[in-house]
Structure formats: structure tokens, C-alpha cells
TrEMBL record:
GO terms for cellular component: proteasome regulatory particle, lid subcomplex. This is 26S proteasome regulatory subunit rpn-8. Acts as a regulatory subunit of the 26S proteasome which is involved in the ATP-dependent degradation of ubiquitinated proteins. GO terms for biological process: proteasome-mediated ubiquitin-dependent protein catabolic process. The lineage of its organism: Eukaryota, Fungi, Dikarya, Ascomycota, Pezizomycotina. One of its GO terms (molecular function) is metallopeptidase activity. Belongs to the peptidase M67A family. It comes from the Eukaryota. InterPro entries: JAMM/MPN+_dom, MPN. Residues 16-150 form the MPN domain. Pfam families: JAB (PF01398). Keywords: Proteasome.
Amino acid sequence: MPATTAETLSLVARNVSVAPLVLLSAADHYGRSAKGTRKRVVGVLLGQNDGKNIRVSNSFAVPFEEDEKDPSVWFLDHNYVESMNDMFKKVNAREKLIGWYHSGPKLRASDLEINELFKRYTPDPLLVIIDVQPKEVGVPTDAYFAVEEIKDDGTTTTKTFVHTPSIIEAEEAEEIGVEHLLRDIRDVAVGTLSTRITSQL
């Protein structure tokens, strides 16, 4: 059923926040699977969606392949998605499958088809493109929802993605952990540098 203008606006008006852990996981996934290639990586987003606010708190990598010559040919292991999702539910029942990510850096022709696959698990899958090799400083994520676009001339509708703003937001526990890590790294670096200078004198 085609989305009305009000439905499209309600999708865009959602607040999407992505936890830093998700960015780290996606960057690690890319580093292990596709670094030095033109391939992209795909994974599942977990979190909470109350209709207005979407909190992406976790993710996991998914086996994914696509033909470089023909982007309409791709494989995503949905059996793996289902078994991993079941395991994550046992660990944290509050985290639900809310969408998927890929390493972009932009939308691709097959994204709408992949998004349709994720509708098996959630009615409005969120797509977050995580730029694992950003060229400029800023938020390395772009969030999208798929909608059916109604044409003014009465012809058939087409599916398209609408962009919605996203932010990177850590929970208090994550912030404290990162601050401690940075403090420890800073202290170790200072200690090592002062030790080297002292030994050279």
C-alpha cells in the first residue's frame, strides 16, 4: 500500500540514535571482511523502536555476497540472521531486530530488495549506512526508511528510501567506559614518552 505524505513525514520525524558500539562493530566487520576491496559488508541492527524514538544499541555481522558485475545478484544468509536473532533475544529480550546496516558509502540498487527481506522480521526496517572510511569529519551514518512513492500522474507507485536524521549517542555506562579507556591510554602514552626521554638523557 502506498505511503501517504503524512506517513512519509512520520517516518522522517523519528529520532534515530546509534550507539558507538554499533559503529565499532561495523568498522571491525569491514576490517575483517572487505578491507582493501570494493565490497561492502551487511549486518543486522538491534535496539528499541517505540514509534517515535529509535535507539540502535547493538548489531551483528551477516554473511553477504554480491556480484560486482551485476548488483542485482546478491546473497544474504537469512537462516544465519534468524539463528543469531534468536540467540540475541535470549541474552537481551529488550533488544529487537529493528533494521540493517551496510558499509555504503551510499545507497545501492539492490538495497530495496534487501530491505524487503528484512520486512520478514520487522514491519519498517531501518537502514543505516555506516561510512567506515569517511572522507570528512562528521556523523558517519545516514539513516533511511523505505516508502512507496505516489506519482502525480496516476502511474504505478515505486519504492524509494527517505532520509531521516541520525545521531551518535552513548548511554552513560558507555561514556564512563570510554572515558576510563581514554584516561588509561593517555596515562600509558605519557609514561612511555617520559620513560623514553629519561633514558635518552
